[in-house]
Model the fold of this input.
Amino acid sequence: MDEYAIKLENICKEYKSAEGNRVVLQSINLYFPAGQSIAVVGPNGSGKSTFLKIVLGLTKPDFGSVTILNNGKVNDISYIPQDYRNSFFPWLRLKTNLALHLEKRNHDHLGVTLELSDHTLEKFIEAAKDVQLIVDLNKFPYQLSGGEQQIMVLLQALLRKPKLIIADEPLSAIDIHKKELILLYLSNFLIKEKPTTLIVSHDIEDALFLADRVVVFSKNTGFVTADFLIEKQHPRPNEWRYEPEFRTLVKRALEAFE
Ligand code: ADP
Ligand code: MG
Done:
């Protein structure tokens, strides 16, 4: 099945500013097969967020093309933007936000379903238990801590069972104890649902821990400076992070940052 394989051909992107032009991405040719989870890493300003937005069609490249092979299906994509708060409607309670993300809209009936069904609520409660999130869904998004908001956004995104996940720094506000649980949850999700996943992280270890493949962008050239597979089977035990095999992979990715 070719659901959500992605082909990028000769992508180039330059930003113009008063200080001069800045080439952010240069001659990017990549093929992501369906079901692969890809970590996109690189230093700040290396073009990771720009790259994800180009894949999504939110930013236009100067040259090149993006082809997403999805067998004609729509609405199977979950995007988690770097500013995760953009995934909420801030004036709506969490339960209504959840409903907007997860309930099927009845377009014959003036558009929008705002009620959370029992079925969705059950799924949410189960997932929240897995990641030890305790939250009152009658609250508004701003009443949660940054980390809690980010976990909510992640659950909202995953409970839709997307076939393509594009996540920009999805774990940046989550503390180290919680992160282990979330990584396990994510890892299990990837095994079970096999979505094509692009995950950007400035935390190279988290990204490598989750991914089947690593693509490194360097800051100054705009080129991809490394692209390699991580063969370790999922779910990966947390202890793997301390083993020489993992440390070697981290070093290999880091060396490609410059
Ligand atoms: P990363 O996500 O790797 O930190 P970004 O893709 O956000 O990097 O940004 C790459 C570079 O492009 C940065 O120097 C940033 O300032 C610049 N940039 C990003 N978006 C814009 C924009 N809309 N207009 C001008 N410059 C931008
Ligand atoms: Mg970014």
Summary: The CA atoms of residues 1 and 145 lie 40 Å apart.
